[in-house]
Specification:
With 362 residues, the protein is of the alpha/beta class. The protein contains eleven helices and 14 strands.
Length: 362
């Protein structure tokens, strides 16, 4: 089976972990500090704060900006559920808007219609590694005095005019094993605001700035040195990983773009291809689910990100009456194919041949 995702771990990461194990500093220590400093430089911000995962990064970032009950945060329903869950965890209300059909990200033209007196922030999601239209979103946020909290959990290294995502507002990243770089589990928050950075550090450490002195009830959202040691090595390889993903994506697009009924992603500098996601339209002879089944039977793993928009999830019954037609349409069409850096030319060729040779009468 050609996997849909595969973390690129070799002897450098193993040696880094072994060094930490031998040091005895298994919790948060100097490796976390080093990783934070290197990641801040990479994104181009003053501060980076490591967390236990991407969800805790989003939650802590929202809390640090004093998002609370009675507030509203504009975001996308077409995302992993953590995007909305973390807003609700603060007591605030997610306000969904529909997405752009080509990028799968927030449609900036719909944002202002959703702004109310309670709106506190916009949380754009850089889905699949494709940067959202941050220039328009920044302009709207500035006009209405709104915060920007970027869900960049799938977009490590994505840029807009040489400015990296995570530097437009307060950025949140995930280092889950399927992501463009990994620490096993882990997250990171990026900001240029010293006060926000200080607040985040207290939030993720039980409300404490000085050990055993607690200013408020916080959380244990800290990263370990074990995770950070992997992250330090992975960050050095990230640009190489991203270039491999872009190259694989460009090859797939070139070879299957002519197939009727398939819509392939555009190749552009702002996309780092956490996922290579095609759309299967009504013009394609097979359903999306049938194509997925055939590919898996042929040894090609694939996945649907995401089959049910957040507003239609059982966990969100108060949103079931709402309609976001593009999100709902896209959720029935998307299918992600392997694009990770470990793919060989033979595997890429096999994926392409398999799709082209499918017996559409099945």
């Amino acid at each position: 089976m050609i996997p849909i995702a595969k973390p690129c771990i070799d002897n450098e990461e193993k040696a880094a972990v072994l060094e930490v194990l031998e040091s005895g500093m298994l919790a948060q220590g100097p490796k976390v500090k080093e990783f934070e400093e290197e990641f801040a430089k990479f994104i181009g911000v003053k501060h980076a704060i490591a967390t236990s995962n991407g969800t805790t990064a989003l939650h802590a970032a929202l809390l640090a900006h004093n998002i609370k009950e009675g507030d509203e945060v504009i975001t996308s329903s077409f995302s992993f559920i953590a995007t909305a869950n973390t807003i609700k965890m603060t007591g605030a209300t997610p306000i969904f808007i529909d997405i752009d059909e080509k990028t799968f990200n927030l449609d900036p033209n719909k944002i202002e219609h959703a702004i109310s007196k309670r709106t506190k922030a916009i949380m754009p999601v850089h889905l699949y590694g494709q940067a959202a239209d941050m220039e328009k979103i920044e302009s709207i946020a500035k006009k209405h005095n709104l915060l920007i909290i970027e869900d960049a959990c799938q977009a490590h290294g994505a840029e807009i005019r040489k400015k990296k995502v995570g530097s437009f507002g307060t950025g949140c990243f995930s280092f889950y094993p399927t992501k463009n770089m990994t620490t096993g589990e882990g997250g990171m928050i990026t900001t240029n605001d010293e006060i926000i950075a200080k607040n985040i550090r207290k939030i993720i450490s039980h409300g404490s700035e000085k050990r055993y002195y607690h200013d408020f009830i916080g959380f244990n959202y800290r990263m370990t040195d074990l995770a950070a040691s992997i992250g330090i090595v992975q960050l050095k390889k990230l640009l190489q990983f991203n270039e491999a993903r872009k190259k694989n994506a460009a090859y797939l697009t070139q070879k299957i773009k002519s197939i009727e009924g398939l819509i392939v992603p555009e190749i552009n500098p702002s996309h780092v291809f956490h996922q290579y996601t095609i759309r299967i339209t009504k013009e394609f002879p097979l359903t999306r689910d049938k194509l997925s089944e055939i590919l898996k039977e042929s040894g090609i793993d694939n996945a649907i990100f995401y089959p049910v928009p957040i507003h239609q999830q059982k966990a969100y019954p108060e949103y079931h009456h709402l309609r976001y037609p593009i999100s709902e349409k896209i959720s029935k069409e998307v299918l992600s194919l392997p694009v990770h850096p470990s793919l060989t030319s033979e595997e890429l060729g096999y994926i392409i041949r398999t799709i082209k040779e499918i017996d559409f009468k099945k």
